[in-house]
Each structure stands twice: as C-alpha cells, then as structure tokens.
TrEMBL record:
PROSITE patterns per the UniProt record, alphabetical: GGDEF
Alphabetized UniProt keyword annotations: Membrane, Transmembrane, Transmembrane helix
Cellular component per GO, a single term: plasma membrane
Phylogenetic placement of the source organism: Bacteria, Bacillati, Bacillota, Bacilli, Lactobacillales
InterPro entries in UniProt: Diguanylate_Cyclase (IPR050469), GGDEF_dom (IPR000160), Nucleotide_cyclase (IPR029787), Rev_trsase/Diguanyl_cyclase (IPR043128)
Protein name per the record: GGDEF domain-containing protein
Single annotated GO MF: diguanylate cyclase activity
Pfam families membership: GGDEF
Length: 388
C-alpha cells in the first residue's frame, strides 16, 4: 500500500512539474513577443528559455536521486526525457541541442564508470553497444527536429513514431544500469512516451487557446484575415528576424482599383462583398501554392502580404497567379449586375540598406502608388513595371 501511495505521489508530482515547465515557457514566449525595441533583451530571454530546462532537469535529477524506490528514480529520468523532448521541439536553439547532446554523452559515460564491470561478458558488451546506439540515435533525432522542424508534420502516426523512437533512444542509453530490470526499462519507456504526449498535448491546448484569443484581437472584423495591428507586429518581427542576414523576403502591397466607384455605384454591401471575396480567394491561392505567406487587410481596400522563402525567379509567376485569381472574382448585385474587380500591386524586396521596417514599408507603398499611376491593374516590382 505504501508503495502504491509513493508511486501515486511521484506520478502526480511529475505531471505538476511538466505543467509548470509548460506554463513558465509560455510566459517567457509572451515576453519575447512583447519585446520589439531591444534586441539584447530579446536575446537574453531566448537564452533564459535555453537555461530553464537545463536547470529543471538538474533539479529533478537531484530531487529524485534521493528516492529510496528504484521506480521513483526512473520516473525522474522519464520526466527529464519529456522536458528535453519538449524544449528540443520548441526552443529551436542550437545551444540547447548541443547541451542535450552533451547530456546524452555524460549519462552514458557516468553509467559506464559506475555499472560497467572490470571483467565484462558478452551481455555487458551488448548493453554497451545498445547504450552507444542510444546516444547516436538521440543526437540524430535532436538535429533532425532542429533542422527540419519535423513536429510540424500533419501525420499523427509519424508524429507518434518519432516520440516513441526518442523515448527508446534515451532508455537505450540507460540500459547500462544493471539495477534496472527489463520490465522496469520497458515500463519507463512507455511512461516517457505518455509524458512526452502529455507535455506536447498541453502545449497544443495552450497554443490553440492563445491563437483563438490572438485571432479575436488581431483579425479584421470584416474579412477575418489579419488586421493592421497584426500586420505591424508580424512585419516588425520579420524585419528583426532577418535583419543583416542573407535571406530574401518581400512585402507585397495590394490595392483594389476604383474601389470608391464600386461603393458609390453599387453600394457598400457590394463593396464589403468585394473585400470578403478578395480576402478569401487570395488566402486560398496562397494556401494552394504552399507559400510561406501572411495576409493582412491594413486599411480600407488596401492589403499586404509578407512572403518568405521565395525564390526571386518564381515571384513574377506567383504575383501573376494572385492577380489572375482576383480578376476571376465576379460579384452579382441585387439588380443582377455583374461587378468585376482588379488590383494594383507594389512589391518591395528587403534590402540591407533598409535600416528600419518603416523604410521598407515606404518603398513598397511608393511602388504601389507607381503601379496605380501606370494605369492600374498592374504590378510594380522595385520601381519597375512587372506585369500589365
């Protein structure tokens, strides 16, 4: 009975630790998002996100190392593995990846020094090889997650397989510990999978709640795409992220041609319908093209798109497809009249001489104005007419 109570307390404590770690991480993420002016402060907060899990893992290890029951110590390892997996996925910082790689090596070397016998047999060598395999597999998965962001994959089965392999890799390292029975090893491997699933599920729950709240604040009331506030935040974030880096990204400004005439001639209901239809069709087109893009209504009939990870040679084709998509929109009025719309587009590519986000915005806005002066229904890219 005492053992059952002790195990229950250990499990509850583990869940509370996991929930606390997720809550603390979300608090730091919120602070990072709010810091716009100070690059130094933002970097310190990012470093804090790296340090906190390392400190947490050390504290958990010290706390559970005093447990009299082997299950208690193993549960501590399981929680540490879960925390390492969570932060490998979300911190996305090389320092934490390397720190986790070092932890894998340290755990293996510690187990060799304590548990590997002076006169080993073939079973001992088998455990050593399994532990070495676990280290290599852990390092491989760490760098795979960091390099390819595999936890954004849509397949739940593949997602679950990666969790299972990650848990197996760490417990393979710990297999050198001969005090751990095969039953305990398997049970804790399953416990780690459950813990990782819980911590990532908690993250997903918090993220959905945050996204829902953020959407209510940052969504345009009419079109349900990002509003001006959301654009300014995302634009500044993108500028800060890629400032002084060799990375191409673009600000695309869009304006509906003769929108005032549409409102005056057909009424504001038709005008509102035009705004909603354009937002919907452009959003669908960006999704179909699988572009890394964010779409916003920044005022009246003006829209903006932030495009990243785009090859410059593909840009004219992308813009042409967006322009064609809008040109196909046909709105029927109550009087059975057909209303067509067209757009003018100004495109600015981030340049290293753009010393602020405002400078880049002014360039894109001037290109949009030039496109409208060219007769509307046209595109101006970096001061040159692209499409007419």
């Amino acid at each position: 009975m005492e053992n059952i109570m002790e195990i229950t307390v250990i499990i509850i404590t583990s869940l509370l630790i996991i929930m606390g770690i997720v809550a603390i991480d979300y608090s730091i993420r919120t602070w990072i998002d709010k810091v716009n002016g100070s690059v130094v402060l933002k970097r310190w907060l990012i470093w804090l996100r790296v340090v906190i899990p390392i400190v947490a893992i050390v504290m958990i290890d010290l706390n559970y190392s005093d447990a009299t029951d082997i299950w208690g110590r193993l549960t501590g390892y399981s929680v540490e593995i879960s925390i390492a997996c969570y932060f490998i996925v979300h911190v996305h910082d090389k320092l934490f990846v390397y720190a986790t790689d070092c932890m894998a090596h340290v755990v293996m070397l510690f187990n060799i020094s304590v548990y590997f016998p002076a006169v080993p047999n073939y079973q001992d060598f088998g455990r050593l090889l399994l532990s070495l395999f676990g280290v290599l597999l852990t390092i491989f998965i760490n760098h795979l997650i960091y390099s390819y962001d595999v936890f954004k994959i849509r397949s739940r089965i593949r997602f679950f397989v990666i969790i299972c392999v990650y848990s197996m890799s760490w417990w393979s390292i710990l297999s050198l510990n001969q005090t751990i029975s095969g039953y305990d090893l398997l049970a804790q491997m399953l416990a780690s999978i459950v813990n990782i699933s819980i911590i990532l599920s908690l993250d997903l729950f918090f993220r959905k709640q945050l996204e829902s709240l953020t959407h209510e604040i940052n969504a345009d009331f009419l079109t349900q795409i990002g509003n001006r506030k959301a654009f300014e935040f995302a634009f500044q974030q993108l500028f800060d992220k890629y400032e002084k880096r060799q990375h191409d990204w673009y600000l695309v400004m869009i304006d509906i041609d003769d929108f005032k005439k549409i409102n005056d001639q057909f009424g504001h209901i038709v005008g509102d319908t035009a705004l909603r239809r354009l937002s919907k069709e452009v959003n669908l087109q960006l999704y179909d093209l699988q572009l890394d893009a964010s779409f916003f209504r920044i005022g009246g009939e003006e829209f903006a798109i932030l495009l990243t990870h785009i090859d410059e040679s593909h840009l004219p084709q992308i813009i042409e497809q967006l322009k064609t998509t809008v040109g196909r929109i046909d709105i029927t009025t109550n009087g059975e009249q057909s209303v067509k719309i067209s757009i003018s587009i100004g495109v600015a590519k981030y340049q290293h001489h753009d010393n602020s986000a405002a400078v880049l915005y002014e360039r894109a806005d001037s290109y949009l104005y030039a496109a409208k002066k060219d007769g509307k229904n046209s595109v101006n890219y970096e001061g040159n007419k692209l499409i007419k």
